[in-house]
Amino acid sequence: MYDPLIYVRAVHYAATLLVTGVVFSAVFVSEPAFRATGAGTDVAATVRSWNRWMVWSGLIFAVISGGAWLVLTAAAMSDQSPDEAISDGVLWTVLTQTTFGYDWLVRLVLACSLAATLAPFLSAPKAKPSWLDGFVAMFAAALAGSLAWAGHAAGGLGSEAFVHPAADVLHLLAAAAWVGALPALLVLLATAGGDETSVAIARTSTLRFSSLGIVSVATLFVTGTINTWYLVGSLPALTETDYGRLLLEKVAVFVGMVMLAATNRQWLIPQLMQKESTDVIRGVLFQLRYHVSIEIAAGVCIIVIVAALGTLHPGLHMHVHAH
Q1: What is the residue range of 290's domain?
Q2: Structure-derived torsion over alpha carbons of residues 218, 220, 223, 224, reported in degrees to the nearest 10
Q3: Rounded to whole angstroms, how far apart are CA atoms 83 and 225?
Q4: pLDDT over 50 (residue 323)
Q5: Rounded Cα–Cα distance for residues 96 and 236 (Å)
Q6: Number of domain units in the chain
């Protein structure tokens, strides 16, 4: 865990998922809730302000960390220091003659396209065309999904060359729609609760996010199983290699997140839907904020684990070499 590439990858994954998750949250959760229950409220203004800050900060960190990732990868490929990799032209070779470099060029174009559309997207609803949400969501999804070609999914043969990257893309999009959108949900829950209109916004948003979360969790389970099959392939490779054991830690944290989300779905959200007193509703919102905060912390742990997994040889390959 002392490899600087692990931390650069973790920052890049976190920033990218945050950008995509906040965009997804705005398009599919908060803005529909504002339109249904009162878009002109102080809650809507506060949430939109925080969304702007999170998206722009995330995009800046994604670009900076993406550049650092490229430099460190070039240095690792050439067995040189980062300065030498840049001065000797290795960085340019990696950027223009490798799958990783091509992916980074495409992702830079996507980041610029997303940046060009963010200002009108994050402006007041009356100031933007109706079709803009779809374009921004598409650019954000492509930015997150294209990370699939920066990892182990790239370079497969036969059916694996199509199935594995497709599963990885869906895995990344599901992670963005759930983990990446959690900070935006936390902001909304922290802002709502002062009056009946804001409580209505919280109810609608929480229900919409919960539905999105169910689809995301199901997608993560299916695509995670596919990825595990291609990268691990056997029980010994799962339990007898560093890659496999680290993957089990990721699964354990994921299961914990799912259990917490299930608690929200089965117990807290139904309570939020009831016509209870203001004090009761505020108590439920407090519990939801607490649980979402734990989910965010768990999500950060998973991101760090994924960043570390990307620097290791897949468990299947290690197990085969060991025998």
Answers
A1: 4-322
A2: -120
A3: 40
A4: no
A5: 38
A6: 1
